């Protein structure tokens, strides 16, 4: 008699620390001819998907040079935090677009995987049809503003995944490589030690890498330098504590690696667009 054979499936979920996604605003608009916005600077990432029509984007790159881009249906454009930009609709064929404003600790990394950033603001799907799930997910979020936070964040995840999978400028991400081990070691160390003074040299030493090589590796993988990631981590932890605890802002500032509350307030406002006190009032449970 043959022994019974179990039928099962087993997988290990990859360790994606710091998902930490946030939505700020979303919607769609059929623009009037030559309707414009800017010049303006955003505090968070803002992505527009062009549903129909045409328009123009002026975007200042990492080198400080402003470049112009003509856009049409089934393309999109990204605006990064702190980036000067202006965009306007065509006079003869004004665009209709849908947008999401969002942020999070690993958002820069995900956008980097899609090949998008300061130097490449234009999203081009591999084929127009492949871009439609991106469009439809934005429109779904825009039409379900009364849905639960978890529901909307789930669809933000679908949007980011669709953006990566469909982008013509997508960068292949090969997990399981040695560099992934180094980056995970660095991220884990930062999470465990963000409360105190922490230098890039110390983090690189933990990974047994020299500072310059480590910084290059980290930026390639995470989409931002290690110093910037550490700032985002500290401010994200501070925001979480302001939302869920009754601790004073001064105490939270110290707990999150900012012994000087003034420096903390300036960094927080630069990241979130409002002071810590205003943010707490708006987001307190």
Provide a quick synopsis of the model.
This protein is of the alpha+beta class and 285 residues long.
How would you describe what is shown here?
With 285 residues, this protein is of the alpha+beta class. It has helices spanning 107-113, 128-142, 149-166, 178-193, 200-206, 211-222, 226-244, 249-255, 261-272, 276-283, and strands at residues 21-30, 36-41, 45-52, 54-60, 66-72, 76-79, 84-89, 96-104, 122-123. It has a five-stranded antiparallel sheet with strand order 1-8-3-6-9, with helices on one face. It has a four-stranded antiparallel sheet with strand order 2-7-4-5, with no helix packed on it. α2 (128-142) runs antiparallel to α3 and α4 crosses α6 (211-222). The model has no long low-confidence stretch (mean pLDDT 88).
**CATH superfamily annotation of the largest domain:** Regulatory protein AraC
Number of strands: 9
Indicate the CATH architecture of the largest domain.
Answer: Sandwich
Average pLDDT across residues? 88
What does the overall shape look like? Answer: globular
Ends apart, CA distance between termini: 62 Å
Poorly predicted regions are none
Strand proportion: 15-25%
Structural class from helices and strands?
A: alpha+beta
Question: Layout of helices and strands, plus pairs?
Answer:
Blueprint: E1 21-30, E2 36-41, E3 45-52, E4 54-60, E5 66-72, E6 76-79, E7 84-89, E8 96-104, H1 107-113, E9 122-123, H2 128-142, H3 149-166, H4 178-193, H5 200-206, H6 211-222, H7 226-244, H8 249-255, H9 261-272, H10 276-283
Antiparallel strand pairs: 1-8, 2-7, 3-6, 3-8, 4-5, 4-7, 6-9
């Amino acid at each position: 008699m043959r022994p019974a054979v179990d039928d099962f499936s087993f997988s290990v979920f990859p360790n994606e620390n710091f998902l930490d996604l946030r939505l700020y605003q979303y919607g769609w608009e059929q623009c009037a001819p030559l309707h414009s916005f800017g010049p303006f600077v955003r505090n968070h990432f803002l992505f527009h998907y062009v549903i129909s029509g045409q328009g123009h984007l002026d975007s200042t790159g990492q080198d400080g040079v402003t470049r112009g881009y003509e856009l049409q249906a089934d393309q999109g454009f990204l605006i990064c935090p702190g980036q000067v930009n202006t965009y306007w609709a065509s006079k003869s064929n004004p665009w209709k677009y849908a947008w999401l404003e969002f942020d999070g600790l690993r958002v820069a990394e995900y956008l980097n995987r899609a090949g998008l950033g300061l130097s490449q603001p234009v999203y081009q799907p591999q084929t127009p049809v492949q871009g439609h799930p991106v469009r439809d997910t934005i429109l779904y979020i825009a039409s379900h503003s009364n849905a639960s936070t978890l529901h909307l964040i789930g669809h933000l995840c679908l949007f980011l995944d669709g953006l990566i999978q469909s982008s013509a400028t997508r960068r292949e991400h090969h997990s399981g490589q040695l560099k992934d081990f180094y980056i995970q070691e660095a991220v884990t160390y930062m999470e465990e030690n963000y409360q105190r003074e922490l230098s890039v040299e110390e983090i690189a030493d933990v990974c047994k890498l020299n500072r310059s090589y480590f910084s290059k590796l980290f930026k390639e993988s995470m989409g931002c330098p290690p110093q910037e990631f550490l700032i985002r981590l500290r401010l994200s932890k501070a925001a979480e504590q302001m939302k869920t605890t009754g601790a004073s802002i001064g105490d939270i500032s110290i707990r999150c690696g900012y012994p000087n509350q003034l420096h903390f307030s300036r960094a927080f406002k630069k990241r979130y667009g409002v002071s810590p006190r205003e943010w707490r009032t708006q987001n307190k449970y």
